[in-house]
Specification:
2 helices; 115 residues; mainly alpha; 10% strand; Helix Hairpins; two-stranded antiparallel sheet
């Protein structure tokens, strides 16, 4: 079946949407892993009876209070959660766009076969 310009454009749009969805899903997965690490760190800090702990700042370790470390982790956690929620919305929107694009392509191919 020979594709006309409109069908080619629709196919390119579909492929672009697929790539965008893959990128969003990868970013979301990476952030969810980061969120898991933050939760584990918060849990471990909760178990320690120490008043001071070390935190990683760039390539060095710095002594800080347990409370300050917990505050930093909670701030990071909130930020990551906001990003994850944003990516979830993007993912849903892209899935809807992909479904529409797929329907459009299938309609074009059905018309082409009928000709």
């Amino acid at each position: 079946m020979k594709m006309d310009k409109t069908m080619e454009d629709a196919l390119v749009e579909y492929q672009n949407l697929e790539r965008q969805l893959q990128n969003v899903m990868l970013q979301k997965h990476q952030l969810q892993l980061q969120l898991n690490e933050i939760n584990l760190a918060v849990e471990e800090l909760g178990k320690t009876g120490e008043k001071e702990v070390y935190k990683s700042v760039g390539t060095i370790m710095v002594k800080t209070s347990k409370d300050e470390a917990l505050k930093d982790l909670e701030d990071k956690k909130r930020l990551v959660e906001v990003k994850v929620n944003s990516l979830i919305k993007q993912e849903q929107s892209l899935k809807e766009s992909l479904t529409e694009s797929r329907g459009k392509l299938e309609g074009m191919m059905g018309q082409k076969k009928a000709e």
